[in-house]
Design brief:
alpha+beta; five-stranded mixed β-sheet; globular; binds protoporphyrin IX containing FE
Length: about 400
């Protein structure tokens, strides 16, 4: 790498302590955006790019900025899938999935199931009048949705949870601890065995429709092998759980800390899609997207050396004051909706409509069923984190139905 890492060149990036990013990272992002929009963060040994236009530029440039690289824990644990390969290989894997994740397909085939799952979860705590909404609702709904996407029974919820937690641990294992890595890989093997059985069942005549039956029914020239299907199911499952949990919790947090907006939304549920859109911009569930510098490239006057890792800080781009008016405000009437919370370019989130639909239905069902529903601020925490960003605990209160 080049002399870019000279601390004099990046005074803010050199001084950032990991703790500053673990809490509320938005203040750090603001300083970087203003003074060092392309910075080397010594504590993490990666470059942070914090301005909207620079992030868009990198995410669009798949020639110079790649997702596939040796030091990627995502690739080490999950192998080849749409998010760990580039170019034609990535398109070949992503394209067959697109139809099933289109907005209308989700509305037609999944919306009613998501609402039924949300109601089933609410039935479990409606009489309490107060409960931990993260544990009882937000962390569970996305798993149930994912099982419906794959055509698996809801009784698989606990094994999915267990695998998910092991995967999350292994993906955050940038220190390459062998024990954590082995546990992650063990869960991957179990996931593959489980999914191969599901693929075999989906091959049977009259199997109920699911993502798997759709993929198996593709024309031979674009049909993915069983192995490719399993690998992509792994990243779809992994991409669709904590992200949606965070979206639901951050939306409840945003509304509860803005009572005037909350009153408006309670009176008119057609405002919920605007709440969801503003939530992902305001408190992004996924704070960044990482790329590997394939060819040395200059961004904002800084040379990014071949081999470096760059974090496009989506959450910062979405608070870029040169792009969004009063970006720190939670404003559901905002005209500019072109945030990049789901990234942009070839690796834009496959599940963005599924995420929006789940967020919308979650709020609709909670507000419809639980009278006076809001966050109990005393017993909840603020959103934190620079990977996933969400409250660690969200206690809610409502008038109990006896
Ligand atoms: C609010 C919820 C969500 C957010 C904020 C989110 C965000 C993102 C972001 C930022 C990326 C790009 C990562 C990168 O370029 O490095 C991504 C990719 C992806 N997401 Fe999501 N996601 C959400 C929900 C979902 C759901 C529900 C699914 C399930 C289908 C999903 C599946 C994926 C997949 C498969 C990719 C890889 C796409 C590719 O590489 O072409 N995500 N997501």
């Amino acid at each position: 790498m080049t002399g870019n890492q000279d601390p004099h060149k990046f005074p803010i990036g050199s001084a950032i302590k990991p703790e500053a990013l673990e809490g509320n990272p938005y203040e750090v992002y603001r300083q970087l955006r203003q003074s060092e929009p392309v910075s080397f963060i010594a504590a993490q040994q990666i470059y942070f790019v914090t301005r909207y236009d620079f992030c868009k530029q990198i995410l669009a440039d798949a020639e110079n900025f790649r997702v596939g690289y040796e030091r990627s824990t995502v690739h080490d644990i999950f192998g080849d899938h749409m998010m760990s390969v580039d170019g034609d290989k990535a398109r070949r894997m992503k394209n067959p999935h697109r139809g099933q994740f289109m907005r209308q397909t989700i509305i037609n085939e999944l919306e009613a199931r998501i609402a039924a799952n949300a109601d089933w979860l609410i039935d479990g705590f409606i009489s309490e009048g107060t409960d931990d909404i993260r544990q009882k609702f937000a962390s569970r709904l996305p798993i149930l949705t994912m099982l419906d996407v794959f055509g698996l029974p809801s009784t698989d919820e606990n094994i999915f949870r267990n695998w998910y937690d092991n995967f999350e641990h292994a993906l955050a294992n940038t220190g390459w601890d062998e024990e954590i890595r082995r546990a992650g890989k063990r869960s991957v093997v179990q996931f593959h065995n489980h999914m191969q059985a599901a693929i075999d069942r989906a091959r049977a005549q009259n199997a109920p429709p699911s993502l798997i039956t759709k993929l198996l029914g593709d024309a031979p020239e674009k049909r993915l092998s069983d192995k490719e299907i399993r690998h992509n199911m792994l990243i779809i499952m992994f991409g669709g759980i904590s992200t949606v949990e965070a979206l639901i919790l951050n939306a409840i947090y945003g509304l509860s800390t803005h009572p005037d907006i909350f009153d408006q939304v309670r009176a008119d549920h057609s405002l919920i899609p605007a709440v969801i859109e503003e939530t992902v911009r305001w408190k992004g569930p996924v704070q960044s997207a990482h790329r590997y510098v394939h060819n040395e490239t200059e961004i904002g006057g800084i040379t990014l050396p071949q081999g470096a890792i760059v974090s496009c800080v989506l959450a910062s781009a979405n608070h870029d004051e040169s792009y969004f008016d009063s970006p720190a405000d939670f404003n559901i009437d905002r005209d500019n909706r072109s945030h990049i919370a789901f990234a942009s370019g070839p690796h834009i989130c496959l599940g963005l409509h599924l995420a929006r639909t789940q967020g919308r239905i979650a709020l609709e069902r909670l507000l419809t069923r639980l009278d006076g529903f809001h966050m109990d601020e005393q017993n909840s925490s603020k959103p934190v984190g620079s990977e996933f960003h969400q409250p660690e605990k969200l206690q809610a209160v409502w008038s109990p139905v006896l």
